[in-house]
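Re-run requested by the PI after the first attempt was lost when the workstation crashed. Everything re-entered from the original request form. Ligand of interest: zinc ion.
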Amino acid sequence: MSIQNMQAMVFTQPGTPLQLKTLPVPVPAAGQVLIKVIACGVCRTDLHILDGDLPPVLLPVIPGHEIVGEVVELGEGVTLLKQGDKVGVPWLAHTCGHCKYCMQGQENLCENALFTGYSVNGGYAEYTVAWEAFCLTLPAVYDNAAGAPMLCAGLIGFRSWRMMNEHAQHIGMYGFGAAAHILTQIATFQYKSVYAFTKPGDGAGQQFALEMGATWAGSSLEAPPVKLDAAIIFAPDGSLVPIALSHLDKGGTVVCGGIHMSGIPGFPYSMLWEERVIKSVANLTREDATLFFGIAPLVPVTTSTQLFPLHQANEALENLRAGNIKGAAVLVMP
Ligand SMILES: [Zn+2]
Ligand SMILES: [Zn+2]
């Protein structure tokens, strides 16, 4: 490599802002590729890492797990990718391939999994390395900043989508951010109806949901006009679980789509009875990605993004925290 150094935004300690640092460009190990980052999405999980809601596993670490980039160098033994390939790097960075979960097709639950931007360095940097087996081939329409939110908001959203009864027709979404704005397009494509719930008073969020194709939008304190067959909760607020459950029809599912949520208040068994289900979603599998990137260009899913230069990662995160991002925040490299 002719380039020796790179700029990166580094997480050093919970509760403190990211620091802009000049670091050596990483060297790809066997099975890895070096990637020149084009764009990296900013996810709520990054806030949970920064706030210490998720215990640190690697410090310092470069966050970012919605990476769109170009392969610029191959590590030893790399055969699937070549220089110039555009790839996506998601949250699931590596799995062991031999634990009971890997053996039964649940690599998202791997006992020894590594996660991008958490247990290994991620994409808030000009360069990163990734295992080629976990790099995702992106349809050409997504090999740019607009594709970044597809890699977590899209993928985890889609895994949440797969947790519903496939016959679900009326689908509630609590928290109308990056994931919900992508899923609403898939719902419309499949002739399903979306009922969007936002924080009370978030008229702009409700308007955005209607623009994206939601049938109805209101506050999380309101009842939808119909019983829901499923409700997906993206907001990290456990008090929404019994609220969503109270709007479910028989046999319906509440899917908790986030990695972290505040405590869930108690509720009477009668609310769960009649085969209602509460499920969580953990991580993603490569199969989710194959299915998602199969359907997304057919819809075609488009993303609403707000771009920030790399060095303004802290501003992007604070805007996400404050609910000021319409769609998804994405960092673009200098
Ligand atoms: Zn495993
Ligand atoms: Zn994420």
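Saved to the shared folder this time. The mean pLDDT is 96.
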